[in-house]
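Homework help board

Subject: predicted structure for assignment chain

Our instructor gave us this sequence and asked us to write out the predicted structure in token form, then describe one feature. I got the tokens but I'm not sure how to describe them. Can anyone check?
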Amino acid sequence: MSEKQPTEVAAEAAPVTSSPLSTDGETMNGQPLERFASCFEKSARRWEMVVYPALFAFCVLSIYGFYMIYHLTQDMSHIARNIQVISTSIDPYMGPHMASMVDGIENMSSNVQVMTRNLNAIDGNMEAITVSMEDMRGSMQQITGHTQTLEPMMASMVNLDQSTQHMANSTFHMTREMGSMNRGMSPRGMFSRFSPF
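My token output:
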């Protein structure tokens, strides 16, 4: 085997790199541009993986949203037509009937106001009747007091009646006695005692 010189061994061990002092400009700036291009491609791929599905989802959602809005407007138009059909089928003259009902409610309101005034008048009359009843109660109390004072007079009247009856009886007896005395003192009465007949 042949021995290698130390300079040759050092040359073999050293890696082969491009010298920055090389006269070729492309060799000096080639690696950073390639790294920038590769990084840009990687980031573009990452953004493509995010942006393209997002754009696809946005398109799908926007189409679905327009579809829902279209069907919602159709449903609202169907509902409006159905409401119109229902209103005409229930009562085609609902407007005049509602007007007549409003007139009836206004008349009822005026009648209720009249009833309220009449009830207020009745309330005033009841208050007057209450005052009159209180006056009558006072008068009845006075009459009761006068009746209590008339009780002794009634007792005196009863006694007077009894005395009058006694006087009538006495007068009747006196009349009989006077009649018998009159018959006894007459001349015919004296002769009739002696007559046999």
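Reply (TA_rk): Your tokens look well-formed. For the description, you could write something like this. Helices lie at 6-13, 25-90, 94-185, 187-194. That's the kind of observation they're looking for.
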